[in-house]
User: Fold this.
Amino acid sequence: MTFNLNGFEISPIQEKDAWWLCNFMVANRERFKNDFPGTLKQTLNPTLSELFVQQKTKQFASGEEYLFTIKEDEHRNIFGLIYIKELHVKKGQAELAYYIGYEYKGKGHTTHFINQIIPWTFDYLGLNTLQIIAHKDNNGSTRIAEKLGFTWQNSLKNEYKRYNDTVVNMELYKKYRVAL
Assistant:
């Protein structure tokens, strides 16, 4: 399941992506260190990135978690990631997380790309509820959630540990499958 969108591609993570992923994460280290410290730690060098990608391709194949890369058609470099994680099939629920590189920030690309994945999660995975969990200071992420029709539910106290071990509250947004 690959999504081709006017010069961009959203596709499942592949083992050949390890080097590109390492480059992407290292180039965006300062941008990702607060909100994605776990992924950052696991991709800071080519060896770690290879192990990370091997794990994620296995999780994708087993349906445990889905990690998609966002690439330019022309250069094939990764400039974003979309996760479908914390998947609870029986509850019909998952969390949606996303990263975009600094050079694409604020251009509307993330909203457009996420909007392609949402129907797939409802139709292919059979989910009924998607969640986005973001820090209130992450204005880009909260705006994306709102633009895509997610509604704020509540604040989650002491929900997330940042890179410096600071524990912060997070905001929970949800979107429900629309019954036809």
About this structure: The chain has a mean pLDDT of 88. The CA atoms of residues 52 and 61 lie 14 Å apart. The chain has six helices and eight strands.
